[in-house]
Amino acid sequence: MDPATTAAPIQSDCETEPHSVWSWWPSWRPTSMSLLKTTESKILACIQNDLWARFVTLPNQDRIWTLTLTNKVFHKPAAAKTPLVMVHGFGGGVGLWIRNLDALSRSRPVYAFDLLGFGRSSRPPFPSDSAKAEEQFVNSIEEWRQSVGLENMILLGHSLGGYLATSYAIQHPSRVSHLILVDPWGFPERPQTQTEENRDQGTEVVKRPSPPRWVKVIATVVSFFNPLAVIRAAGPWGPGLVNRFRPDFKRKFEDLFDDDTMTQYIYHCNAQTPSGEVGFRAMSESLGWAKRPMLQRVHLLPPSMPLTMLYGKWSWVDNSSGYKVVQIRDQAHTRVLLINEASHHVYADQPEEFNKVVENICNSVN
Predict the structure, then answer these.
(1) Residue 277's closest CA among 128, 176, 135, 57?
(2) In whole angstroms, what is the distance from residue 85 CA to residue 68 CA?
(3) Contact 80, 48 (CB under 8 A)
(4) What are the tens digits of pLDDT across the range 225-267?
(5) What CA–CA distance (Å, rounded) separates 186 from 289?
(6) Which residues contact 1 (CB under 8 A, 6 or more apart)?
(7) 62-74, pLDDT tens digit by residue?
(8) Which residues of 328-366 are buried (b: 16+ CB within 10 A; e: fewer)?
(9) Which of 105, 137, 193, 267 has the CB geometry, 3.0–4.6 Å to 242, for a possible disulfide?
(10) 146 contacts 256 by C-beta, under 8 angstroms
(11) Cα dist. 149→2, 3, 111, 153 in Å?
C-alpha cells in the first residue's frame, strides 16, 4: 500500500484492552482504547491532506500507531523530499499535532507516531533501570523506522520526545538529516540547592517562569507513584481532574473544538494501563530532571549534524540548556530560537510561527 496515495483515516484493526493485575479498573475508570480511538478520530477529521493511519508492527509484535500525511495535490514531487518525523512528549499522542500536520505536509511527507507505551501504541513492560528504559524507547523508534522503510529523516521531538530524539540521533546519526528539539526535557543536570551564602554574593539570577500548578502537583505525586497515577486513581472523576488542571489544552484548540475534545483525548491517552509512564519514571529523578542528563552526552552528536532547538519564550523549561548545547558543540550547525508568546506547548500556542520555522528548517535540508 502506497502511503502517498492512500487516505485511510479509519483503522479497522481490532484493539483489545491490555491484560494486567489492574484489569478491574476499566469498570471504575470511564475510559477504554475504543474511546481513545473515537476521540482521536474526531481530532483527525480536521486534517485536509491525504492521511494514512495504521499500526506499524515491530519485530517483537509491539505495534506503533502511525500517521503519514502527504499533500493531496502535489504529493508526487514532495515524495522525493526528506520526510519529517514528529515525536510527541510525555503523556501526549499524535492528536496534539493537529495544528501542524496539514501545514508541514504541504511540501514533504510527514510522519507522526505514538511513542511505545503511550497513546494507541502497545503498552509493554519497561525496565526500572534508566539506561535500559531509554534503550527500549530508542530501539522501538529504530525498529519503527526500519518497518516503515525510511532511509533518513528530519527528526523533531517535543519535551520527552526531544530527549529520546537526541538519544536516537546519537545512536543512529546516519538516519537523521536535521534534529529539531522543541522545549526538550532532560537536558540540564539537577542543580545543587542554593545556599544563603551564594545568594548573598550578589550573583545575578535570571528568574524563569514558575512551573504551572499541574506540574507541581504531578511532581509531588511522581515521587511515590507513576506520574499520572492520580488520573487513574480518580476513577470517574478523572476527566474532570484533567479539565481542572489542564484547562489550557481546551483553550489552545478552542477554535477547532468548542467542547472538551482535547482534554478528553489527554484523559484517554493517560487513563489506560501505564507503560510509557513506567519507562519515563525510570529515567527521571523527578518530573523535571533526568537521571542521565542529555547535556552530558550531546557532544556525541556528529558535529556535522544540524541541530535546531526551539523554546517557548514563556515556557517553564529553562532555555539556557540550548545555549549550553551551542557552546558544547562549538557553535557547529547549532541554533537556538525562541518563539514569542509561547509556553511549553510551542506548537499549539503559536502554531503559525512554529509551522513557519519548522518548514524553513525542512527546506534547508532539501
Answers:
(1) 128
(2) 9
(3) no
(4) 555 665 655 555 555 555 566 667 678 888 898 888 888 898 8
(5) 6
(6) 52
(7) 999 999 999 877 6
(8) bbeeebbebbebeebbbbbbbbbbebbbebbbebbeeee
(9) 267
(10) no
(11) 12, 11, 12, 11
Helix, coil or strand: residue 156: strand
Pairing, β 176-182 against β 284-286: unpaired
Q: What percent helix, strand, coil does the chain show, rounded to 5?
A: 40, 15, 45
Q: Provide DSSP, 308-334.
A: EEEEETT-SS-THHHHHHHHHTTTTTE
Q: How far is CA 261 from CA 38, 43, 237, 254, in A?
A: 10, 8, 16, 9
Please answer whether residues 114 and 64 qualify as being in contact, where contact means their C-beta atoms are separated by less than 8 angstroms.
Answer: yes
Q: So what CATH class is 41-189+290-364? A: alpha beta
- Listed as ranges, residues in the chain with pLDDT below 50 are 1-27, 75, 194-206, 222-224
Report the predicted TM-score, pTM, of the whole model to 2 decimal places.
0.83
Spatial CA neighbour of 178 closest among 294, 295, 301, 297: 301
Do residues 99 and 47 lie in contact, with contact meaning Cβ atoms separated by under 8 Å?
no
- Cell numbers 510525555 label which residue? 90
Q: Give the end-to-end CA distance of the chain in Å, rounded to a whole number.
A: 26
**Dist CA 157 CA 309 (whole Å):** 10
Coil/strand/helix, residue 69 = strand
Backbone angles phi, psi at 180, to 5 degrees: -115, 120
**Cβ-Cβ contacts under 8 Å for 41 (sequence gap 6 or more):** 9, 10
DSSP structure class, residue 30: S
Instruction: Label residues 259-270 b or e (16+ Cβ within 10 Å = b).
Output: ebbbbbbbbbbb
Q: How far is the C-alpha of 266 from the C-alpha of 217, rounded, in Å?
A: 17
Q: How far apart are CA 198 and CA 200, in angstroms?
A: 5
Amino acid letter, residue 170: I
β-strand pairing of 284-286 with 289-290: antiparallel
Q: Which strand (E) or helix (H) includes residue 352?
A: helix 351-365
Dihedral through CA 24, CA 27, CA 28, CA 33, nearest 10? 90
